[in-house]
Amino acid sequence: MEKGAVFFGFKEGDMSFHPTFKVLREKELKYLEQRVPAYCDRILWKSMPNVANDVVQQNLEPLTWVGTSDHKPVRGNFTIKIKKNTETAEKLNLSLKFHNIKCEGLDAKDIGGASDPYIVFFSPDGIIKSKKSLKSQVVMANLNPEWSEKGLPIVPLSVSSLENVCESVISFIIYDKDMTSSDDLLGAAEIDLSGGKLEENVHFEAGIHRHGRKAGSVSGQYSVVVTV
Asked: Which pTM was predicted?
């Protein structure tokens, strides 16, 4: 996990107890002598970057009295901060502008050892106001592509206050463009908008993940703009 090879972006609490595998099927913590004890029973969690600190694990413990398996299950208690509706009386037509986006370390999907990447802009919070998919231009044969403002769409938003924008996330879904078959997924990244400012560029950096593994990185700038 620390190297990003599995469960990229997930968190895990401290395990201040004895291993829970491989144990005898009894209501006590006794190990099978022929096997080396291991921490096979875990609780992992992952949050969007704008609420990463709003999920806190309070405790983690094994249920040693469960004797129906050669594993002892574990349980954890969490506190979760609930977002409040911060919509203000002032209604603005807001959009996001992205600038100087750069990806690094993308996977090669083409026979020649490169990829033809492009970005699809998606909102897990549903704040993008567009009936069509918003995409960047395709960068040909490049594993470290860059997009200037001209190669990126303006992203219209359904929320009308800066406060609501700052509570949201934009996901970059990155694909390799193929001419003869369906496009290949290169990875995804979540862009935290909590530092958003009106008419001012904000720098961002994020890891790209695919199937639970690190698949590169992305950086750039965005600004929240008022549109007519």
From this structure: 0.84
